[in-house]
Write the structure tokens for this entry.
Amino acid sequence: MTHAGLPDAFPSDTFLWGVATAGHQNEGDNTASDTWFLEHTTPSLFREPSGPACRGYQRRDTDLDLAAGLGLNAFRFSVEWSRVEPERGVVSAEALDHYERKVDGCLERGLAPLVTFNHFTAPHWFAAAGSWTAADAPARFAAQCDRVMARFGDRIAYAVTLNEPNLEQLLQAGAKLPPEAEAIKTQMLAAAARAAGTDSYASANVIPADRQDEFQAAFTRAHRAARGAIKARRADLPVGVSIAIADEVATPGGEERRDAKRAAVYDHWLREARHDDFIGVQNYERVVHGPDGEVTVEGELNGMGTVIAPGSLAGAVRYAHEVSGVPVLVTEHGIQTSDDAQRAAFVPAAVQELAAEVRAGTPVLGYCHWTLMDNFEWIFGYGAQLGLHEVDRETFQRRPKPSAKVYADVVRSHRGTLAHR
């Protein structure tokens, strides 16, 4: 395919077109995890328990078929640590077997396995023993990475150590949660500690404001330890971290505020990525800064209440590469909306803008849409919809939305005869 007479920006034989998923949000009944424990704590910041989620653990092959049926060549998923090591030092052979079959299932369908080693959730025992800030946390996470690599690391295509270790900083910098959420978060974690019989309880995506710096340092140690463990098993495997990143734009006079936001939320991880093989970019919105604060822009809104901006992905990708100096893998991109017509219009427009950015010289390895199906969206429960398929909450049947065909058509137009071969 060419656009305006130009060659395709995305190499048909190497560019990754995928969907992104995550264990706790999709698999269901992740009972040994910290998030499950917090969902059942009183009070809880979580709108509702995850319960069976999408029954993705049981429907593994069905969901891989859905991805392959869209003409994709990549599938991002997480290996759930709390399933692999549900108790300290107790490793589940069944869980490792499951994820090995998932990797092989990807390969059988022509899907490159993109494996996330930690997508927010961790074992309950880990959260109750100091979580990521514990002195032995890096070593314990490295051991988890090593056992996963030993089982099927020879067959995966890309490794993401941590998913969005900067998410809480992004939410707080943008005041995305109501003020009472911070108080409930603190009360929930204190109640969880009491229930677990420990001094403290912590989890990766509900971090109190006063512990942000502490956790950033802890996540950095964990990322480095994980990278070392993965590379020790397979030096040629591309390893990186994924970050949440908005497209930060300034109107005249707003540059200082924009730059301060970037420095507070993104730059640490972008500098850290200079030692990695790629930087994972996860983008959902654009933020416009004026001299007096964020500027409200006129336009159609998404379900997050921000203006739909298809060019936000290209802007986030550009900045991520400028600072990190390494290639970008779009590990998540999508739109929260109950109106699938918005999604169907948004995806091709965003990809077109991304193509222009690639032609301008920014190296992009692949694009993963979040997500394959509507799932458990953390504290928002099942109220937030970002999937290409809807899921019947009683039967768990997956039904494609019109946007699924639109995405498949976008992929086909770039992969050409490679798609659906």
In short: The longest helix spans residues 212-233. The CA atoms of residues 127 and 203 lie 6 Å apart.
